[in-house]
Specification:
Blueprint: H1 3-19, H2 26-31, E1 33-44, E2 58-72, E3 77-89, E4 98-110, E5 119-131, E6 138-152, E7 155-168, E8 175-187, E9 192-209, H3 211-218, H4 224-231, E10 235-237, E11 246-264, E12 269-282, E13 287-300
Antiparallel strand pairs: 1-2, 1-13, 2-3, 3-4, 4-5, 5-6, 6-7, 7-8, 8-9, 9-11, 10-11, 11-12, 12-13
């Protein structure tokens, strides 16, 4: 395990130990919230491929189980510890399957009284990714900050920034990313909620290409700029989307957006319909657009 992961884990353990001082049993158990979410999605260009003719679409299925444990440290400061396990299945491309275990700590500071007071939060998290593709297995560390405010009783706005680093077994799947996000959430009524987000991600992404296309890129068929850049980036043959397919790591700017409509059947169960899209442009101008529709069911115990 790398030093950053060890530092993260030691920090998580130390903060958790301090937060559990005092009433260690009844108070914490009463505040523990459990949830389960199942999501089915259709993803266009799941393979994140630049060559239009070779883009692989896919149905994906994800199941996650989560827990949240809030602790009021003072009248204006809330400590939240959370954990999640999730499994992603891509039946047509099983090497894209993965299982994740994650934990997160957050501190929230509310400035003022009432529901319209702004809230500043900072979080620190760690995830182990057990991917079907061995080269992608490894630890992810994340940190983020967000400022949120209800400008109206039923309208919440938020702005945030996050940092992510994934240390995989292979350099092809190592990631270092920064993301800046704007969010809005509108409570239409007691049952319906409409939410949207827009983000800009800067950093590493992993793309894929069939072997004939990749061979032409390295052979200079697409020009010297493409040849020089791709030759200098980590890549490996993975067979994820077919025999001989290659995964390769590039630096990119990514514009992301999503819109979600949620209907709460009860205080515990809700269904969400979401449309998401990502437009990736790497450092030499090659694009990898993806978009998806998803339907998810969430239940809070």
């Amino acid at each position: 395990m790398n030093p950053r992961c060890l530092l993260l884990l030691s920090t998580l353990l130390a903060l958790s130990a301090r937060a559990q001082e005092g009433d260690r049993t009844a108070g914490w158990i009463e505040n523990l919230h459990l949830s389960a979410t199942g999501t089915a999605a259709w993803v266009n260009n799941h393979s994140r491929t630049s060559a239009v003719a070779n883009r692989a679409d896919a149905a994906t299925y994800e199941l996650s189980l989560g827990s949240t444990l809030p602790r009021q440290l003072s009248s204006s400061v809330l400590f939240v510890a959370s954990g999640e396990i999730s499994a992603l299945s891509v039946p047509d491309y099983e090497l894209a399957d993965n299982f994740k275990t994650s934990g997160r700590l957050a501190l929230q500071r509310k400035f003022g009284l009432g529901p319209l007071a702004p809230v500043l939060s900072a979080s620190l998290g760690g995830t182990y990714k057990s991917a079907r593709l061995a080269a992608d297995r490894g630890w992810t560390t994340e940190a983020g900050v967000q400022l949120a405010k209800r400008v109206l009783p039923n309208l919440r706005l938020a702005a945030g920034a996050a940092w992510l680093e994934h240390n995989a077994r292979s350099a092809t799947f190592d990631l270092n990313q920064r993301t800046y996000t704007l969010e809005a959430s509108w409570d239409i009524d007691d049952r319906w909620t409409l939410a949207g987000s827009a983000s800009r991600l800067q950093g590493d992404i992993v793309a894929n290409a069939s072997w004939p296309v990749w061979g032409m890129a390295l052979g200079g068929v697409f020009g010297p700029t493409v040849k020089e850049y791709y030759s200098a980036r980590p890549w490996s043959v993975t067979d994820t989307y077919g025999s001989g397919w290659v995964a390769y790591n590039v630096e990119a700017d990514v514009d992301l957006w999503s819109v979600a409509l949620t209907y709460a059947f009860t205080d515990h169960a809700a269904v969400e319909l979401r449309k998401s899209a990502a437009f990736v442009v790497n450092r030499i101008g090659v694009t990898y657009p993806t978009d998806s529709w998803s339907l998810g069911l969430n239940y809070r115990f």
